[in-house]
Structures are given as C-alpha cells and as structure tokens.
Amino acid sequence: MPGDLDTHYPDAQSSPGLALWRASNAWQRQIRAALAPHDLTHVQYVLLASLTWMDRTQPVTQRDLARHAELDVMMTSQVLRTLETKGYLRREPHPEDRRAFALHPTKQGVELANTATRDVESADAAYFNTLTTTECASLTSTLQRLASHPG
Fold first, then answer.
1. Considering only the top CATH level, what class is 40-148?
2. What is the C-alpha end-to-end distance of the chain, expressed in Å?
C-alpha cells in the first residue's frame, strides 16, 4: 500500500538513526563553512590536523594516519597526495621501516592545521552551544561508545 512504511517507530522523529543523520548533516554544513576559507575539505582537515598532532611523538605512516582517522587506506592515500601537492606535507624514508615513508607536515601545513583548528573549534562551539557542559560531555561519551561498537 502506498505510504505505508513497515517500521516499529510511531513517527520519523522517534528514530535515533534519523536524528543522528539530521544532526550530522547540520554539523557537517557548519564544518564545511568553517573550512571553506582554508580551501580544505573535511577529510583533508582531519588528516592534516591528525598528522600535525601525531607527528609530535613518533614517525607517522600513511597506515597509522588512516587507522587514527578511521579512514580507508586508499582514500587516505589519495587525500595525502592532494595535501602533498598543495605543499602541506612531505614524505621521508621511515627511520625504522625501509619499506615505509614517514609523513611530516610542512611549516605551511602546521600553520594551516592550527588556523583551521581554531575555526573548526569555533564552529563546534557555535553548533553545540544549545547543550549544557554536562549534556555535551554526555553526548561525546555516547558518540564514542557508539563509534567503538562493533556494529
């Protein structure tokens, strides 16, 4: 019968999946707007910021970075090539693994990662400002638990 969806939810507003979808889309619009002046996509930003953070303590490989960001290795490779072409990172022989390259942000990459992070964190603050500190901490904890769920 047309218009008869077989669901156990009484209405669309009761679906946690739809609520997460809508909230995620609204948040992503804010992040895209924050990153637009930097000519970075969200994925480029995540990889550049993650690399800048991780590079402080250890040599970082493409695989390390993909694992940290929970991205596909091939997609990570393509995005890293773009960031390298833009002059935001460089590859050097890995000091411990002759088969791998260590990734390092360039000075320009570090500056961009820091500037973009300030804008992303401002966008986050604006988006989540309707939540109390306790609600925000609870949301973060809940999302972390969901993200670690094996599915």
1. mainly alpha
2. 32
